[in-house]
Amino acid sequence: MKTYLVTGGAGFIGSNFIHYIFDVHNGDVKVINVDLLTYAGNLENLADLEGNVNYSFIKADICDRDTISKIFAQNDIDYVVHFAAESHVDRSIRDPEIFARTNVIGTLNMLDCARYAWEEGEGFKEGKRFLHVSTDEVYGSLTEEGTYFYETTPYDPHSPYSASKASSDFMVKAYVDTYHFPAVITNCSNNYGPYQFPEKLIPLIINNVLTGKKLPVYGDGKNVRDWLYVMDHAKAIDMVLEKGRIGEKYNVGGHNEKQNIEIVKIIIDTIKEMLPDDDPRKAHINYDLITYVEDRKGHDRRYAIAPDKIKKEIGWEPDTMFAEGIKLTIRWYFEHTEWMEHVTSGNYQKYYEEMYK
Ligand code: NAD
Ligand code: TYD
User: Fold this and answer.
1) What is the whole-number distance in angstroms between the Cα of residue 279 and the centre of ligand 1?
2) Which of 94, 110, 284, 298 to pair with 33, CA 20 to 30 A apart?
3) Count of structural domains within the chain
4) What parts of the chain have a pLDDT lower than 70?
């Protein structure tokens, strides 16, 4: 049975990944979830795993060397899956420093604690892997139709968020090149699905449609993102851990490019279609809710992943097409109004204190 140290497991992708590996490995894995529980981390996302002897949670900062090295000393960790990060571009524009601290210094600390724990002779213990979860935003912005991000595309980050992720990727590369450290990097496109904090486009729009609020669209609404259902990302990470080559990076995406305004209209149409006819909200849901607002500073125009390498080498392909994934996501938000209430009001902090007092 493999032991996974998952950082940022109480966040959006991390919590979906933990659910995924328990499911796909029939519960036959051990998971240690290390998360600081910032505004983006929520243990409600993993409430179903409480009491599972193969799952444990440790509230810790990835920058805290003593605590992280103790976790390595007390557990025989096979895989580190490193999600923990500050992840929202708009926040990085307002407050860049925390992005450098968590995303760069935090990643360096995780790498170094793993290096000390895994060292053996001149190399590293057999079978150990450090998977650094990164983003396509490190490659910058595409302008021309028909161009894509490949693993060989030069890094050209623009926001403090993407610059911090690019720096962390280079730190991982430095550990591979210098120490032959057993790391791999995945660079994924925009994810959507259950448990995503409603500061990101898709959950924000779903929540605003359901609560009758305006739908803010930045600039002309024609910026393009390449959307991937979060469980397909979880599957990619699981497969790269098993089959990825040390020192390599793999782009993850499903060729699902859409303009932001298309996404907003699809959400409006899909919610209307899914709500029962007697739902009083239905009458007020229409395109008039769309409000064009000031553009984001330095707004990247287009992201699009070429997933050829992961398909060819690892055999990964997405299972969930957008039309299905967006329905699954909307259905999840319909059914989790309490979760939304908690994360938007900060009440989940109380839930956490109750649970662990
Ligand atoms: P998220 O913001 O939902 O979750 C981040 C988690 O990290 C939270 O649980 C938070 O509490 C935790 N965290 C933050 N600072 C910490 C610290 N100092 N110590 C310990 N834990 C800390 O983010 P997400 O959307 O789930 O993204 C996860 C990872 O995937 C990030 O590294 C992000 O860059 C990457 N990524 C995200 C996307 C996307 O579309 N969301 C796409 C590609 C890559
Ligand atoms: P976001 O979900 O923040 O992801 P990222 O910036 O990492 O790609 O934003 C996705 C796109 O949606 C991006 O082009 C910015 C745009 N956007 C809006 O138009 N309105 C919003 O309220 C938000 C949050 C984003």
Assistant:
1) 35
2) 94
3) 1
4) 346-357
